[in-house]
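Quick one, T. Sequence first:
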Amino acid sequence: MPIDPNAALSAPHSTEAVAWNESDVLLYHLAVGAGADPLDAAQLTQATESGDTVVPTFAVVIPTLRATSTPGLSLPGVDIDLRKILHASQRVEIHAPLPRAGRAEVTTGVSALHDKGSAAVVVLDSEGVGEDGRRLWTSSMRIFARGEGGFGGERGPDGPPPPPEREPDLVIETPTLPQQALVYRLLGDRNPLHSDPAVAAAMGFPRPILHGLATFGIVTRAIVDDMLGGDTAAIQAIETRFAGVVFPGETLRTQVWREAGRLAFTVDVVDREDAPALTGGEVVLRAAEEAS
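Structure tokens:
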């Protein structure tokens, strides 16, 4: 049986020690677009040692930093052909500001299984706890597995509400670089779909695609810079659904709506007639930012 709910949900979560340094953070910032204007003082605080902030989505790459093998999915009670899975959505919550260098214990495991009938959704949660015992982040990845439903589970909750039916408060256009995926893969995701033209062609794409989490990070950094004045601490949590591919070198158009306590956003690809890239985007703001 590809999915055994009892085995998956009762299995003990794994724990591993992780560490990162300032160079890892700077590489991440470059991989999500910081320094595109090397004369911009605000961008240089992210791209060099002159600053101390960390873009919140850095948390999602900490467990895989410096990995050199192709990522896989091996979990108790979950035996799925990797060709059937898609990264459906991602959420990360920041409990304390991430330092530019640190150590943590990361605990990871399956927290929920949702039965969509013809497909299943596996919810994989990770929590990072610093050396002082404080929670640093919680990350939740939803994996969509085609053909793996029908095991009798609940369909699961809906995602963030859609954006309001009015004009956005801000529209941000962010060019990506032709080599963006080649830089981002150095953070640990060496899936050849993002670097090998032959593998991309075999998967039905005209060329390698950008990592979904790279798009997630690029958009988060753009919102931090253009909507929050560079204040990474204003973000309590950020979530999105992956709705379509992005090819390195394309331009992203992010539409942002400000509401009470949150920012809603969607992301389209300018180069392909506004093809959707991210939907259901939500930034949860900390109370201080909401009050301002």
